Amino acid sequence: MFIGAVALTVATTGQAVAAPAAASCPSVGHNWSGPGPFTVTEQQSGAGHTIYRPANLGGCGKHPVILWGNGTFATPSIYATLLRHWASHGFIVAAANTTQSGSGSEMLAGLDYLTAQNAKAGSVFYGKVDTSKVGASGHSQGGGGTINAGADARVDTTVPIEPGPQGVIGQLKGPMFILGGQHDTVVVPLLLVIPRYNAAGHIPAIYGELAGATHLTPTGDGGGFRGPITAWFRYFLMNDQAAYGEFFGPQCGNCGSPIWSDFRRNAKAQAL
Predict the structure, then answer these.
(1) CB within 8 Å of 88: residues ≥ 6 apart
(2) Which residue range forms the structural domain that includes residue 203?
(3) pLDDT tens, 213-259?
(4) Nearest Cα to 189, choosing from 210, 158, 174?
(5) Which letter does DSSP use for residue 213 in this model?
(6) Given a cut of 90, is residue 144 above it in pLDDT?
(7) How many structural domains compose the chain?
(8) Count of CB atoms situated within 10 Å of the CB of 58
(9) Is 75 part of any domain?
(10) Domain at 144, CATH number
(11) Is residue 186 a part of any domain in this protein?
(12) HSE on the CB side for 163, CA within 13 Å?
């Protein structure tokens, strides 16, 4: 299958700037791979998306958004355990119901839907969606779609997982955590992922290559990718300061972790 305190955000110039903290979600300490504090439900948008969300919205004040893109010939159900995991941490996840997500347009349509629902009196989402805190992630072709979606100024950060060739790295507006699998023979890291990381000099970018991972590792519950991605989104979209040290500063918990066969931070990421 080809498939809070004050936090730092990044302006379109790629420079770190201070952003006021949003109403915080409950802390999970450092248990990024464990279930979050929210019971999860899912629903169809009626506009081409499966929405995974906390059953009772409002526990984070307004909830940040994650846009999801599937791999080729895959559907959200293939990744449901991972997407439900993010929802348990307080995110509203809009997963495009398409097996061809490389354009990123179906992913962005999920943000359009949630933006409209956030303003619609009587909607379960009314006043509960933080449309100023949006991330995008996807696997394989959906990873390429993530890069395309990240060219939209409304998307604050991206996590392409074993991404396809779609999208232009130079058009990304915010920080990127790009992921490869050590034993991925479909999207070979050295040929297809590391060069895209190297092209991201204009933004903070981190490359993580999961030890032992194949192209199918991100399916299901996301395997070893699940915890680090959750920490990334909790920092950049929730201002969760407990997640900062996983990636930034002199300690950088991931930098020497044995879960990675390769882990790199570019100059802008190191500056954070």
Answers:
(1) 35, 36, 37, 38, 39, 40, 54
(2) 36-271
(3) 999 999 999 999 999 999 999 999 999 999 999 999 988 999 999 99
(4) 210
(5) -
(6) yes
(7) 1
(8) 11
(9) yes
(10) 3.40.50.1820
(11) yes
(12) 34
DSSP letters, 117-131, are HHTSTTSTTTTTEEE
Helix or strand holding residue 159 (H, E) = strand 157-161
Q: What is the pLDDT of residues 21-79, one digit of tens each?
A: 345 899 999 999 999 999 999 999 999 999 999 999 999 999 999 999 999 999 999 99
With a CB cutoff of 8 Å and minimum separation 6, the contacts of 77 are 50
d(CA 170, CA 248): 22
Distance CA 266, CA 264 (A): 7
Tell me the average pLDDT of the chain. 92
Q: Which two tokens stand for residue 2?
A: 């080809």
Round to whole Å and give the CA distance between 194 and 178.
Answer: 9
In a domain? residue 230: yes
Output the CA torsion 146→84→3→191 (10° steps): 60
Q: Which residues contact 29 (CB under 8 A, 6 or more apart)?
A: 242
User: Please, where are the H alpha helices in the chain?
Assistant: 80-88, 105-118, 141-149, 194-198, 226-238, 244-247, 267-271
The closest of 168, 140, 156, 173 to 232, measured between CA atoms, is 156
Distance CA 220, CA 156 (A): 25
In a domain, 1, yes or no: no
